[in-house]
Amino acid sequence: DAGITQSPRHKVTETGTPVTLRCHQTENHRYMYWYRQDPGHGLRLIHYSYGVKDTDKGEVSDGYSVSRSKTEDFLLTLESATSSQTSVYFCATTRDRGQGTQYFGPGTRLTVL
Amino acid sequence: EDKVVQSPLSLVVHEGDTVTLNCSYEVTNFRSLLWYKQEKKAPTFLFMLTSSGIEKKSGRLSSILDKKELFSILNITATQTGDSAVYLCAVEVGGGADGLTFGKGTHLIIQP
After folding, report:
1. Which residue of A has its CA nearest to B33?
2. How many domains does chain B have?
3. Among residues B55, B34, B75, which one has the least CA distance to residue B64?
4. What CATH number does residue B61 fall under?
5. Is the peptide bond before A106 cis (omega within 30 degrees of 0)?
6. For residue A107, which residues of chain B lie inside 8 Å, CB to CB?
7. Quick one: what percent of chain B has pLDDT higher than 90?
8. Beta strands per DSSP E along chain B
9. pLDDT digit string (tens) for B22-71?
10. Greater model confidence, B19 or B52
11. The pLDDT of residue B51
12. Do B94 and A104 touch (CB under 8 A)?
């Protein structure tokens, strides 16, 4: 495993509240990713980062924003949580594109009531 | 739009059986295909395939890629109950896009 931690591991919140999930890695990997996993959809890319302050949108980015102020931390923010954002969120990292292999964090289970 | 399709979506077999999981893809600018195993937690990496026709093997698991027909298979021989998991196939593309495109997974259950 690539030394990836996510916090919190579980969170229950209410519709309309802001939520921030944190991904922390100790491998000095350049690339970091946020995915969400839902039954019937598999893993889908939300946002990714290719360096400090360099981020871009993935397939399902609406309603989410990200920030990366340090190599080791990648934050995912739900500005105003909705029930459709109830999901399991995984962070992943890789050293370089073309390496293919992405290492995943343990996941955060988010429930929006 | 890039697409990865896995089949079957679920499979129940008995311990000792051999299983074959399928993954087909339609993507632009293919770079690599990856297999992951997920057991109620984070996906763990199994194989990465980039070249057609070259088998990757790890113990009882093996995988091969066919870039002409755009598919890959994952074989598990002499299955054990510990092989029960969701097996995910993902494709990495090059040329500016990033991240992995995943299939929905195959839920494999090994009965004792």
Report:
1. A100
2. 1
3. B55
4. 2.60.40.10
5. no
6. 41-42
7. 75
8. 3-7, 10-14, 19-26, 30-38, 44-49, 56-58, 61-66, 71-76, 85-93, 100-102, 106-111
9. 999 998 888 889 999 999 889 999 999 987 878 899 999 999 999 899 99
10. B19
11. 78
12. no
Mutating which of A5, A102, A103 best tests the B interface, going by the most B Cβ atoms within 10 A?
A: A102
Model pLDDT, residue A41? 85
DSSP A83: G
- State whether A31 and B94 contact (CB < 8 Å): no
Which residue in chain A has the smallest CA separation from B91? Answer: A100
CA-nearest residue of chain A to B10? A40
Domain that includes residue B20, residue range: 3-111
Total count of residues recorded for chain B = 112
pLDDT given for residue A8 in this prediction: 97
Residues of B in contact with A35 (CB under 8 A): 99, 102
Cross-chain Cβ contact B31/A98 below 8 Å: yes
Provide the pLDDT for residue A112. 97
Catalogue all structural domains in chain A, each as residue range(s) with its CATH number: 4-112 (2.60.40.10)
Low-confidence ranges of chain A (pLDDT < 70): 1-2, 97-100
